[in-house]
């Protein structure tokens, strides 16, 4: 039976359907709400964990970011200082070492290069190494430097002192007095080959000291291993209330990391960081960059940059320090003084490594300054004269116009206190001196860069520069009185004895604004004419006397004296090297000559030494001349009187 459809039943069905849809929608909305809340809670927890990681864990550096670009990231957390500093210091015949909380801080092992008194300065809170110096006790005046260094250490720093090998040979009373002032009780009793170590806070407590005596002259004392424990503490004397300026901020950051920079970190009268130089008048090298060749000798670099940047004509924006290796302290020194620092990854070993660093620095300076026609190359262990830039400004035109020249150098190998006198005088020499010199881009790019010794060759780069294949008959211009002074006493090819013997008494110009004389005569033809005039105006010395005798050169000023020595060939320097020993000048190899002729001053008169028969200047001598002096290499020449000291 079919039931009839009525209006009421249809309405009820529609209402029932509507309610069903409402129920389904409500359930769906409930599910969406629950899911949304779960997602929100999970996302919040994730963000919280990320936030905590950002603030409590070190952030990874973007590997694609430049080392010089600023990173807008939260700073890493500051490491908490250790509760105590367990410091161990070793003093023995062959080893010096300092460890802090079982971590090596500094050590010197084997050989005698690092013999003497070692001083390591540690930060009193972290125990981090702030400075390490070694003072060779065999050298004169070494302990004067040690006294200055110890006096410069900021009060409150931890000072570790110890002997390696031998530390008392020339330990003078003033040095022992400073050690006593540091708190040492053994300072006055230290003797030959004793072993000794001490740890003390500057102007504070002595934390430990040990002394082991040598029982005989041919034995060393037993090794010392001194161990102490110090509670970290910062002395109020080590905190300076400098004015809040960008300069002071740089100074504070630097002085919190390093020690041994003397007045730089002085609280009441610190040395200035902003070094102002006067502009050069008629500056012909204003666009010439300066490449400073550096290694890991930061205190040398600091001294060198301070003199360089204070010299008239200096421009920090044109100065770049090239550092051989990833060394932090010399980099900080350069940035402290406002100059660019570039690190070079070492290539090769020993002399080859130095050679490759020079090449990389030359490539670098010409790349940084692509329009520069010249570059000045100078080492980190040189002081410069007040007219350093003026000297190059006055001579640069010679290198630009004379193809018979391949460098202008600020250094005279034979320019000692008793053999150099006229700061206006210039010479031409065949041996490239280096030690502050002007390099032409075209020479480097067209020849030197292409033929530079490879890393497997243990060659000295400057000796290579003097070889005939490189020189090609060209010469260098040098001053009579040097415009640089070599003060470095440590390095691969340098030690205090070598420095004291060959460099300490080198003469350097101290006058500003020196006007060089007869620069135009330093071209090829002009110099030959000048030498002809000098030789014809000169007077031959008495060749019956020995060159080592004090009366060989008369005590008469203002003359031109001529000495003849035997020189058969271009490379026959046998007699010259013996003469150089007599005159107490550079005698390890022949340098500073021009066609078999050497020029210098001796007893305030010009001295020309001419090698015969090789030198072409024999034609300007009188027809009757004495036989050239011949001094065999084996001969030990004894002076009849005390020779004039160099």
Question: What's the SSE blueprint?
Answer:
Blueprint: H1 7-56, E1 85-91, E2 95-100, E3 103-109, E4 116-122, E5 129-135, H2 142-152, E6 158-164, H3 173-181, E7 195-201, E8 206-212, E9 224-230, H4 246-255, E10 290-294, H5 298-309, E11 319-324, H6 328-336, E12 340-344, H7 350-368, E13 374-379, E14 382-384, H8 388-401, E15 405-409, E16 426-429, E17 437-440, H9 441-451, H10 461-465, H11 468-471, E18 475-479, E19 484-486, H12 496-502, H13 524-537, E20 539-540, E21 560-567, H14 574-583, E22 593-594, E23 597-602, E24 605-613
Parallel strand pairs: 10-11, 10-13, 11-12, 15-18, 20-21, 21-24
Antiparallel strand pairs: 1-2, 1-9, 2-3, 4-5, 4-6, 6-7, 7-8, 13-17, 14-19, 15-17, 16-18, 22-23, 23-24
Shape descriptor? globular
Largest sheet composition: 8 strands, mixed
Q: Which residues form runs of ≥5 with pLDDT under 50?
A: 1-9, 27-73, 636-646
Structural class of the secondary structure composition?
A: alpha+beta
The end-to-end span amounts to 143 Å
Q: Which range best describes the helical content: under 10%, 10-25%, 25-40%, 40-55%, 55-70% or over 70%?
A: 25-40%
What's the tally of helices?
A: 14
Let me know the average pLDDT: 87
Question: What topology, given as strand order, has the largest sheet?
Answer: 12-11-10-13-17-15-18-16
Give the strand content: 15-25%
Using DSSP, what is the number of strands?
24
């Amino acid at each position: 039976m079919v039931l009839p459809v009525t209006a009421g039943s249809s309405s009820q069905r529609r209402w029932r359907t509507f309610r069903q849809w409402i129920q389904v929608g409500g359930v769906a909305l409930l599910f969406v709400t629950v899911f949304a809340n779960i997602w929100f809670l999970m996302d919040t927890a994730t963000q919280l964990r990320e936030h905590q990681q950002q603030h409590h864990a070190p952030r990874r550096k973007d590997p694609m970011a430049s080392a010089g670009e600023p990173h807008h990231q939260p700073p890493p957390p500051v490491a908490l200082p250790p509760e105590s500093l367990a410091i161990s210091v070793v003093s023995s015949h062959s080893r010096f070492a300092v460890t802090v909380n079982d971590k090596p801080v500094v050590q010197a092992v084997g050989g005698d290069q690092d013999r003497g008194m070692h001083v390591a300065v540690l930060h009193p809170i972290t125990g981090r190494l702030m400075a390490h110096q070694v003072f060779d006790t065999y050298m004169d005046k070494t302990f004067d430097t040690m006294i200055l260094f110890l006096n410069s250490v900021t009060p409150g720093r931890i000072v570790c002192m110890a002997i390696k090998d031998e530390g008392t040979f020339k330990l003078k009373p003033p040095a022992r007095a400073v050690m006593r002032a540091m708190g040492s009780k053994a300072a006055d009793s230290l003797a030959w080959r004793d072993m000794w170590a001490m740890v003390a806070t500057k102007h504070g407590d002595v934390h430990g000291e040990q002394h082991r005596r040598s029982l005989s002259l041919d034995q060393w004392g037993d090794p010392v291993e001194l161990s102490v424990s110090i509670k970290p503490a910062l002395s109020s004397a080590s905190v300076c209330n400098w004015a809040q300026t960008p300069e002071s901020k740089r100074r504070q950051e630097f002085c919190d990391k390093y020690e041994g920079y003397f007045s730089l970190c002085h609280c009441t009268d610190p040395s200035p960081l902003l070094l102002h130089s006067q502009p050069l008048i008629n500056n012909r090298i204003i666009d010439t960059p300066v490449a400073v060749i550096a290694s890991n000798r930061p205190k040398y670099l600091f001294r060198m940059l301070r003199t360089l940047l204070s010299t008239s004509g200096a421009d920090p924006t044109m100065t770049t320090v090239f550092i051989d290796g990833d060394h932090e302290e010399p980099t900080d020194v350069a940035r402290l003084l406002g100059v660019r620092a570039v690190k070079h990854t070492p290539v090769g070993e020993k002399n080859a490594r130095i050679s490759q660093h020079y090449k990389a620095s030359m490539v670098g300076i010409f790349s940084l300054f692509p329009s520069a026609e010249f570059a000045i190359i100078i080492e980190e262990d040189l002081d410069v004269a007040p007219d350093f830039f003026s000297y190059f400004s006055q001579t640069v035109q010679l290198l630009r116009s004379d193809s018979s020249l391949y460098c202008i150098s600020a250094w005279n190998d034979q320019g000692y206190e008793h053999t150099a006198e006229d700061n206006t005088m210039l010479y031409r020499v065949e041996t490239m001196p280096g030690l502050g010199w002007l390099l032409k881009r075209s020479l480097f790019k067209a020849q030197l860069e292409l033929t530079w010794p490879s890393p497997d060759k243990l060659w000295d780069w400057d000796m290579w520069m003097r070889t005939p294949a490189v020189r090609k008959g060209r010469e260098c211009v040098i001053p009579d009185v040097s415009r640089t002074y070599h003060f470095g006493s440590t390095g691969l090819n340098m030690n205090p004895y070598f420095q004291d013997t060959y460099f300490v008494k080198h003469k350097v110009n101290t006058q500003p604004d020196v006007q060089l004389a007869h620069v135009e005569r330093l071209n090829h033809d002009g110099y030959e004419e000048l030498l002809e005039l000098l030789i014809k105006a000169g007077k031959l010395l008495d060749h019956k006397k020995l060159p080592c005798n004090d009366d060989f050169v008369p005590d008469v000023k203002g003359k031109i004296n001529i000495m003849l020595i035997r020189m058969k060939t271009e490379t026959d320097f046998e007699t010259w090297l013996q003469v150089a020993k007599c005159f107490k000048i550079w005698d390890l190899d022949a340098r500073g000559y021009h066609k078999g002729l050497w020029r210098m001053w001796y007893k305030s008169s010009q001295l020309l030494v001419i090698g015969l028969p090789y030198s072409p200047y024999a034609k300007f001598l009188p027809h009757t001349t004495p036989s050239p002096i011949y001094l065999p290499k084996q001969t030990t020449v004894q002076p009849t009187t005390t020779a004039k000291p160099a």
